């Protein structure tokens, strides 16, 4: 038993800290996902992606021949924790590319696809920005119910249908698209395929969906007789569902580490805030109710840290984490909610102040979390879906839906 | 980073799990709850034969010189099975401080007896308030004519009813700050002036009130140095808290296992109740709690074993253990439905034990304060 990070991992942490000090302006606040909304934020984020690529961190886990460093799972975990702690944007490139498009292409793609699509991701190039077309109006948690159809015609697929909640579609060069290729399959799961779609193709319409905070992250994406070369099929036709399940595990596995880093920073800023804010003549840091709430948040973060260590360790032992990824996401969602509540309670009346107002406290990070966390609990699998996965695959309980 | 146990640790766990399941079934636990002594002598002797009392003690005292983590794993198994008796008080609360602070004479006399299972020890620390803060400790030992004279009452002293020796902390200098004037003594439990009264508890686990009236203690029975008592308290709190949390962690795992099994077997509306999300998600919440607690316990155990500073992690672990045990025990009873509310079923044994575990070595509020103080508040 040993819960220590190695010297190499500690050195990486230190290097990331130096990078953050050098590259991220003091007054910058990393509003996770909001960077996709405004042009100037997106430009800054992409400029950091480029720098992260030069440091070898953007896709550090990838093989060297595709621009990676073959870093260990623990180094990736350290990067995920430290980047969110220091508010370094740009690791996601619109989320999809670095997190699961690349790894999935390495698992299921052919060499031609890898040569074409991996280098732009690895170098932080705008042509390496992807969006992911999974959800549809009638296929949310019941994802196998997608209707977007890809019909084969000679060397092409003709795609018709609609996707929704498509993050970053308005910035993406490519779409990682789930489609129905066999509408007559006995099980829906056996008729799904994955296609790579050029977002510049004729017949694609991207329509913004503003979040309730007025931010443009999501889109609706319409496909009207979009022609996709058959060479853009990923892996095996009609095996897309199984390829996807693996990619979803990739999407979830580092969620815990990311939430830990961001949460640790927020806790520290709240501790500083209560140490200099008085109520009824007494510092908030002396108020037992506030002390206990912050202590509870610290304990939750420590728990999430251990759960992140555990999933990383299992992966380093060759285990494909299924329930562990769902567990870390469900628990991470829960503790973000708790942090947002404690934070807004501490800020009191100031928790309602707009992030851009001169009256804002702690750069509006608390408000941002309050607005963001409900969306995060839905993205990449709702809490309820995560708990179904854990119930079925870890506890061996019957399918419940 | 390595979450694995050593081969030896796995063997110990398996041995403990097998032994306890066989020798201490729940029928035995229920029987012992009603009995005055509250432990089984044969089990006690067998445990000594297997080396459990001396697990982490050096070989020169008959011990096995194992790592602290091994003892943590053993406590997890005792918690999982439920083992009534004075193991925790003898080993966690007394043998460890005796080893750390005892002089050669004391160690040579007491530790081999503990290892062989011949003597039972317990810690007489908390008083009528049940509080673990230094300010709550008022029992006084006055130096008179070359020996100490101890008077005062100690409450919630576990298994004092069967103890041969008491480790007593008393105030030897009232003029000093609460943490400064305390001293530890080893005291024969049968000495004149000691009165032991059992406090009846919800679990049948033996808690006692121990009254000292002008009990004479020679200077040779001081443990450590005069005035060093609070250091020893902190030492005990550190190690014993991790061990108590391990016991709770094991109990929580047992409740989850029992509830999960029941949810698969119990049929309502023509289906196992575990197929309903209201039940399934409750079990998942229990699992997330169980795993989180387990890893906090293992981290704390490892930190203690390496000698790294870990007061923060220990306090966090105790809060987590207190909160998780409450939640899990309640969910366990609820999933079992009405049968879980009966004496016939075993789940209630765990539910009743929550309160004893929660308040020993500091309640949730005390440890939240410690966490707060350690994160810069």
Tag the structure with descriptive keywords.
heterodimer; A: 401 residues; alpha+beta; Butyryl-Coa Dehydrogenase, subunit A, domain 1; Butyryl-CoA Dehydrogenase, subunit A, domain 2; Butyryl-CoA Dehydrogenase, subunit A, domain 3; 3 domains; four-stranded mixed β-sheet; four-stranded antiparallel β-sheet; B: 377 residues; 16% strand
Work out the helicity level of chain B. 40-55%
Strand order of the largest sheet of chain A: 1-4-5-8
SS element count, helices of chain A: 11
* Amino-to-carboxy terminus distance of chain B: 30 Å
> CATH superfamily name of the largest domain in chain A?
Butyryl-CoA Dehydrogenase, subunit A, domain 3
CATH hierarchy, class of the largest domain in chain A:
Mainly Alpha
Gyration radius of chain A, to the nearest Å? 22 Å
Number of domains of chain A: 3
The tally of beta strands of chain B, per DSSP, is 10
By secondary-structure content and strand pairing, the structural class of chain B works out as: alpha+beta
Query: Which architecture of the largest domain in chain A per CATH?
Result: Up-down Bundle
Name the CATH superfamily assignment of the largest domain in chain B: Butyryl-CoA Dehydrogenase, subunit A, domain 3
Task: Tell me the overall shape of chain B.
Answer: globular
Provide the spatial order of strands within the biggest beta sheet of chain B.
1-4-5-8
From N to C, what is the helix and strand string of chain A?
A: HHHHHEEEEEEEEHHEEHHHH
